[in-house]
Amino acid sequence: MMIETIELKKMMASDGMVLTNGEAYGKEVYLGKNDSAENWQEITDEEYNKILEEQEKALEDLQP
Amino acid sequence: MNIYNEQLDNINDKLNNTLSSLNDLKMVETVERGVPNITVSPTGLITSTVSQTEGYVEAGTVETTHQISETDDANLIPENIKSGVSIFGIEGSHQGGSDEFWDAIQDGGNRVEYQMAFRRSRWNSDTFKPKYNISPTSAQELFRMTTVGDDTTKRIDLIKLEEETGFKFDFSNCTNMAFAFADAGCILTIGEVDLRKCIGGESLMYAFYGGYSGNAKTEIKKIICDENTAFHSTTFDYLNWLQEIRFEGTIGKTGIIFSKSINLSYESLMSIINALQVLTDSGTTKTITLGTTNLAKLTDAEKAIATQKGWTLA
After folding, report:
1. Whose CB has fewer CB within 10 Å in chain A, the N or C terminal residue?
2. Per-residue model confidence as pLDDT tens digits over B173-193
3. B260-304 pLDDT, tens per residue?
4. Residue B309's Cα: distance from chain center in Å?
5. Which of the 8 DSSP states describes residue A60?
6. Is the confidence metric ipTM above 0.85 for this complex?
7. Best residue in A21, A33, A45, A52 for a mutation probing chain B (most B CBs within 10 Å)
8. Which residues fall within 8 angstroms of residue B6, CB to CB, at 6 or more apart?
9. Smallest CA–CA separation between A41 and chain B, in Å?
10. C-alpha gyration radius of chain B
């Protein structure tokens, strides 16, 4: 029989906030083995939505 | 006495006449029943001819059959009959004017550069019937910004098309699929896609991006990849309707976003997680963005498969 303990580090964004490491975004984050909480910051929902708008605009600029 | 003699004479006369008639009767032979011969004229006139020998024919039925074919008319071949139509049992294969169209657009089957081939056009399951397999070396914007028209039930089911017709999309030699299926409103499902040659930095940018009109894709049958496949964060973004996707190989080079694909099945999510490359030895970390809805479909132990490999789940 083998018993293994697996650690799962979960970060939850505060209400009205989104977690980001500058590239990925999410309300909840499960840290990879080599990742750490210091790599993630909170931004507001409004800031996140603005980023999404900018990404959509960037795509529109690529329209044929 | 005279009356009786007269009557006897009458009877004798009748007997003699009858005997004479009997002598005139011939012996009738039993003969074979004639067998009809069927011929078809060039104008389609079908003639059945029977030659019967004189004689006694026993009761019964003779049957002759003739299958109309190109031996009756050399033009009665599949290539001359519209596809989907059968004439006298001969299934048509002619695509109408589209045969010439596909010969032109596919260069008689020799075309390999398919960038923008179907872009910004209206296609549906009635019209997208390539004559030749499509094996592109480049496929940028292949179906980008296509539409299906008013009848959205006619979105192209590429998986079904391949299964039912033998047509194949072969991307195994394709080095660039940027925007290939981006905003592809005419596409419902995608079959097997080998991305192992797409190793350039932006070669998979927005490759399957849903966008506003192209997010109706429900299934991507299989993505074949390895650690060099240059996935981009936008490769599978905004596939809002996507339910099924399977990965064969390794997801390694960069993270992928599936957070908008809230209808992804559990099996699809596990396929993604199981394909993640082990990063822990390298000390690096990358992120797969599944989103809250998809994360809720996984147990902590299943999430830990990804995190133990060195991947952060967002």
Report:
1. N
2. 999 999 999 999 999 999 999
3. 999 999 999 999 999 999 997 778 899 999 999 999 999 999 999
4. 41
5. H
6. yes
7. A33
8. none
9. 13
10. 38
Chain A contact probe: residue of B208, B312, B313 with most A CBs at under 10 A: B312
d(CA B201, CA B218): 27
Rounded CA-CA distance B144/B207 in Å is 9
- Mention every residue, 6+ apart, whose C-beta is less than 8 A from residue A49: none
Residues 18-57 in A contacting B (C-alpha not used; CB under 8 Å): 19, 21, 23-35, 39
Contacts of B102 by beta carbon, 8 Å cutoff, 6+ apart: B95, B129, B130, B131, B132
Quick one: closest CA in B to A28, which residue?
A: B314
Residues of B in contact with A31 (CB under 8 A): 307, 312
Please report, as a single letter, which amino acid is at residue B118: F
